[in-house]
């Protein structure tokens, strides 16, 4: 199987994602597959950064697309100085046993300049490696 994780850097902003299938929250007979994704955002740039918003493109195994836009992450707007990082976990349900997610975070530097930091594609899969 392909590595399901993602590790992408844009303008010194590193975004690492590690997804995980949660079988105890899933009900395959009802087409419900529950995934958690753990994210670490590291500011490797020389600027202070404030996370303003997020954009996700979620695609299931049938090719159905779902776009999610919102302010902050998990109700927070982390402010990161150079060298600092922020970690959080979130989740998404799918109606197929695999899919992909990708997107970007919008950050603002102290000088008002905006930066879109890419979140590279990662894979949501219920496959259990034996």
Q: What does it look like?
A:
- The chain has a single domain (6-125), classed as Immunoglobulin-like.
- Helices cover 0% and strands 62% of the residues.
- The protein is built from no helices and nine strands.
- The chain has strands at residues 6-10, 13-21, 33-43, 49-60, 65-71, 79-80, 85-94, 98-109, 114-125.
- Strands 4, 5, 6, 8 and 9 form a five-stranded antiparallel beta sheet that branches. The protein has a four-stranded antiparallel beta sheet with strand order 1-2-3-7, with no helix packed on it.
- The protein starts with 5 loop residues before the first strand and ends in a 5-residue tail after the last strand.
Largest sheet: 5 strands, antiparallel
Q: What is the second-level CATH architecture?
A: Sandwich
Please give the CATH class. Mainly Beta
How many domains? The number is 1
List the main descriptive attributes of the protein structure presented here.
4-stranded antiparallel beta sheet, 9 strands, 5-stranded antiparallel beta sheet, Immunoglobulin-like, 0% helix, 130 residues, elongated
């Amino acid at each position: 199987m392909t590595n399901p994780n993602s590790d992408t850097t844009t303008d010194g902003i590193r975004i690492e994602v590690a997804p995980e299938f949660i079988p105890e929250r899933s009900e395959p007979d009802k087409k419900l597959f529950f995934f958690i994704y753990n994210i670490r955002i590291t500011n490797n740039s020389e600027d202070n950064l404030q996370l303003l918003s997020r954009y996700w493109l979620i695609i299931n195994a049938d090719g159905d697309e779902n776009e999610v836009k919102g302010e902050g992450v998990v109700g927070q707007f982390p402010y990161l100085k150079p060298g600092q990082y922020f970690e959080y976990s979130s989740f998404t349900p799918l109606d197929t046993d695999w899919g992909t997610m990708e997107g970007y975070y919008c950050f603002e530097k102290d000088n008002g300049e905006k930066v879109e930091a890419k979140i590279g594609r990662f894979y949501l899969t219920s496959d259990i490696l034996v």
